[in-house]
Amino acid sequence: MGAERWKPSVTVAAVIEKDGRYLMIEEMTRDGLRINNPAGGLEPGESPIDGAKREALEETACHFTPEALLGVYLARNPDSERGPGVTYLRFAFCGTASDPVPGQALDSPVVRTLWMTADEVAAARDRLRGPLVLQCIEDHRAGRRLPLDAIYTHPSVASPDAGTATSEPT
């Protein structure tokens, strides 16, 4: 009997900047109100890009158009809502957002959206959801951009019978 398999929690994030301000969300957590990029867990059957679009719409009521991969991030949260010692693998994308869709509700536990400067986000460090929130903004400000096609999603993700899916990825 081997050791338990390590399974990081895969998340996707949208970093949206307009006129020097970043679209952020304020959400209720067990630790109180926290500020985050529009972000959340990657769902079965979706690509990281599709996940980022979905999360942005759910959390901001805005359609997100990814333009670049900002980066792939790994961070361990010693005590999170998902349990002790969860490691998060985050795919962050930068791009633009539409105006809010009329009548589109924000997903719970999002309380509101807000546009913040990078300095305001940095000043709110003690209220950020985690260390990757500010890191993504700093990387965006530094001009980090990778092509979207750097991420490939095999058709078997959306349809398990597609292609030549095996028990081990190749």
Automatic annotation (TrEMBL):
The lineage of its organism: Bacteria, Pseudomonadati, Pseudomonadota, Betaproteobacteria, Burkholderiales. One of its GO terms (molecular function) is thiamine diphosphate phosphatase activity. This is Phosphatase NudJ. Its cofactor is Mg(2+). InterPro entries: NUDIX_hydrolase-like_dom_sf, NUDIX_hydrolase_dom, NudJ. Keywords: Hydrolase, Magnesium. Residues 5-138 form the Nudix hydrolase domain. It is an enzyme of class 3 (hydrolase). The keyword Hydrolase applies. Monomer. It comes from Scleromatobacter humisilvae. Pfam families: NUDIX (PF00293). The gene is nudJ. Belongs to the Nudix hydrolase family. NudJ subfamily. Its EC number is 3.6.1.-. SUPFAM superfamilies: Nudix.
